[in-house]
Design a protein that fits this description.
heterodimer, A: about 425 residues, alpha/beta, 14 helices, about 45% helix, elongated, B: mainly alpha, two-stranded antiparallel sheet, about 70% helix, about 0% strand, globular
Chain lengths: ~425, ~300
């Protein structure tokens, strides 16, 4: 029981100690730049951020307590890994990254308060953080008022764009449209049953899905659309409705504990996912851990990243992650997107040759990260990422098998015309 | 919505929907029984009920892992061992909590609300520290998954039937203990008049402790059973607590019959409405109906009939 938690408990402490020790020689050098090519602090930091000749401070702001800790733990782990790797490779403009971690505690006002603390007191040069849209909406005014930079990892409903945020996850159309096209083309799917948890992301996503199905796919229709309160654990009635309407595709955007209940009851009700097509955009490898691979095997998920992706970047990333956080940890779509945050920030700082927020915001479009585990990403003018969309099929061992990927990067479109 | 379907299709759905309602009924009874004892009989507002359930779920998960590693041949039947262990673990924790916390608060029932709410937060964070923040997947033996093919078109979930059978069994045991055993008489005596019960020689402290332990132990079994249909994570207990109190309060806090009657009416309303409306709307209408009925009958469905 405990061997999977032990590394997670021990290693942050150990790393803190190591970092403390690593800081000692830096202090004794009295702030003289270690390398000749390190630009002077006064030149790269004109707005008083927490940048010294040897260090730069960033913030990590996620929930490690409360309901959302289930989801956000992976993001924290990925961000710490990225920071460690960047430091091992020489840091950012010759400066080691130091991070200050704050706990949003699954409470949106707390997120806003902690964001303010990170920006005003700690003068963080960038913040990697937030997970739910609610927490992002809570911190957005803080980041805009105090001119901070947020790297936000989660796939979300879109309809937002800010100078002070880089969205490293997919906005809704990137996750939905290619998947629906694929299922329509290869499975000949004509009828769709839309399901979701009852809050903004599933509702907005299903709205986009419905518009696409009805207006862009020939002869396709939505035969049902339903929402369940967050935390709902009883799905037998809707499963009967699905049996009655016999849709070609069940399109499921159910989140959290409800997810587990839904897939267990689906299997128990005799719906065989090897025959019934189910497409989801809310189940990553992280969620499968709780659902149980045997309960969801055969389902399709539309994401941009799967742990099983077969490319050189990912083959280095997965072992590094497991080495740091334990052999049993899994890496889901959002975890990978969180890993992109520190790297994109580093690349942007180096492109801008400055830590200043305004210069980073201006330099972000066009920044490309060739070492991304998902392959290759580039920041768009609208501060979202160009990414590929992929469809994977869940296997009983809890991993996805890649079935399809778009030939080109999909353009992010947070305000899709004709879908609102 | 029924235009295009044949009579046999509709019949099959009707039968399956009937079972869905019965399964929901069993789930509600199982959730509420432990609380009906603690809240109904002892008057303790136990906000940590969900966390006692989740302890049972974690015990099941640990048992599943241990059995798979040490005695794989036992795996098909491990669930029964797990439920017994869950009962023991949650019951023991319950008795500990009663001794450390609850017994000081019997004269201040409203304070138990705050104390147990704090306890629930402590337990949640403890689970998170010990088992990790992520949900764990409890693997079930093959025979418990899947469905029973009653006819060509009627499929009944096996785990649903398992929950039903378990609920019936536990209900019978609880009724036997409370209404036919001499210990049950002592419990009821203490509930009705603590001072008098003490005066006639009943060890009221001991009775309190075991009653609380029994309630928590049943919560543990419920949690164990719910690993088949729901999630197991540090905060999963929160998913059940509202429904659980709803069932107990609506039924009339002091009546076990009331709990069962209320579980039946709520589950049938909920599952029927869910079929014709969407999930969220069904919940809204169910809750509105309950509020309306409680306005007319604040004491709940069965409150007055319990003092036999």
């Amino acid at each position: 029981m405990s061997d999977e938690t032990k590394p997670g408990l021990k290693s942050p402490l150990r790393r803190k100690l190591l970092m403390g020790m690593a800081a000692l020689p830096a202090v004794s050098m009295l702030g003289r730049p270690a390398f000749a090519d390190v630009p002077a602090t006064s030149a790269v930091n004109t707005t008083g951020l927490a940048v010294t000749d040897s260090e730069v401070t960033v913030g990590i702001l996620h929930s490690v307590t409360g309901t959302m800790a289930i989801s956000e733990t992976g993001s924290v782990e990925a961000e710490k890994l990225a920071i460690e790797q960047i430091n091992a490779a020489g840091g950012v403009l010759g400066r080691k990254i130091k991070f200050i971690q704050e706990d949003g505690a699954s409470d949106w006002p707390t997120f806003a308060e902690k964001a303010k603390k990170l920006l005003v007191n700690d003068k963080c040069a960038a913040v990697m953080g937030c997970w739910t849209s609610a927490s992002r909406k809570a911190v957005l005014p803080v980041f805009e008022q105090y001119n901070g930079m947020l790297y936000y990892p989660t796939f979300y409903e879109g309809l937002e764009q800010s100078k002070n945020v880089i969205y490293t996850g997919q906005e809704a159309t990137q996750q939905i449209i290619a998947g629906l096209d694929w299922v329509n083309k290869t499975k000949g799917a004509k009828s769709f049953y839309l399901l979701g948890s009852d809050y903004i992301w599933p509702r907005t996503s299903n709205k986009i899905a419905r518009k696409h199905i009805e207006n862009h796919l020939q002869g396709c229709k939505v035969v049902g659309e339903e929402y369940f309160p967050l935390g709902s654990t009883q799905f037998n009635s809707v499963i009967n409705k699905i049996k009655l309407t016999k849709p070609d595709v069940i399109y499921a955007i159910i989140v959290g504990g409800s997810n587990v209940a839904f897939y267990k009851q689906l299997k128990a009700a005799g719906i065989d996912l090897s025959k019934q097509t189910l497409l989801t955009i809310s189940v990553t490898e992280d969620e499968i851990d709780g659902i149980g691979g045997e309960n969801i095997a055969g389902a399709y998920a539309c994401m941009k990243y799967f742990q099983s992706l077969d490319n050189a970047n990912n083959k280095a990333f997965v072992p590094a992650f497991k080495k740091m956080w334990g052999e049993k940890t899994v890496i889901g779509d959002v975890t990978q997107a969180a890993y992109l945050g520190p790297w994109l920030w580093k690349l942007t700082v180096e492109k801008a040759q400055s830590f200043d927020i305004d210069k980073i915001a201006a330099a972000s479009p066009g920044v490309e990260f060739k070492g991304a585990p998902e392959g290759y990403v580039r920041i768009h003018e609208n501060h979202h990422l160009w990414s590929k969309t992929r469809v994977g099929r869940a296997k009983a061992d809890g991993q996805y098998e890649l079935i399809y990927e778009t030939a080109d990067l999909v353009e992010p479109d947070p305000f899709p015309k004709g879908y609102q | 919505m029924f235009g295009d379907y044949s009579i046999s299709d509709l019949g099959a759905i009707l039968a399956m929907q009937g079972f869905a309602g019965l399964i929901l009924f069993s789930v509600y009874v199982l959730m509420a029984l432990g609380l009906a004892i603690i809240f109904g009989q002892m008057g303790v507002i136990n906000m940590a009920h969900g966390e006692f359930m989740i302890l049972g779920a974690y015990v099941t998960w640990m048992t599943s892992n241990a059995v798979q590693h040490t005695a794989p041949w036992l795996f098909p039947g491990y669930f029964f061992i797990a439920m017994i262990l869950a009962f023991i673990a949650s019951g023991a924790l319950g008795m500990l909590v009663e001794w450390a916390l609850i017994r000081h608060l019997y004269k201040r029932p409203l304070d138990t609300l705050l104390a147990t709410w704090g306890l629930s937060l402590i337990l949640q964070q403890a689970y998170r520290s010990v088992f990790g923040a992520r949900e764990v997947g409890v693997e079930l033996p093959e025979w418990m998954m899947g469905s029973w093919q009653a006819t060509d078109s009627i499929q009944i979930p096996i785990n649903g039937m398992f929950v039903m059978a378990l609920t019936i069994l536990i209900t019978i045991v609880v009724f036997y203990i409370l209404f036919w055993s001499s210990w049950g008489k002592q419990v009821r005596a203490v509930v009705q008049n603590r001072v008098m019960a003490g005066a006639v020689g009943i060890n009221t402290e001991k009775v309190d402790r075991y009653t609380f332990g029994l309630g928590c132990g049943i919560a543990g079994i419920a949690g164990s059973a719910f690993t088949m249909i729901g999630s197991t994570g540090p905060t999963a207990g929160q998913l059940y607590i509202v429904d659980t109190f709803l069932v107990v309060v609506f039924g009339g806090a002091a009546s076990l019959f009331g709990t069962i009657a209320s579980a039946f009416s709520i589950s049938q309303t909920q599952s029927t409405l869910e079929f014709f409306l969407s999930g969220s709307m069904a919940k809204v209408i169910t809750l509105l109906t309950i509020v309306a009925i409680l306005m007319v009958r604040p004491q709940g469905l069965f409150a007055l009939k319990v003092r036999k």
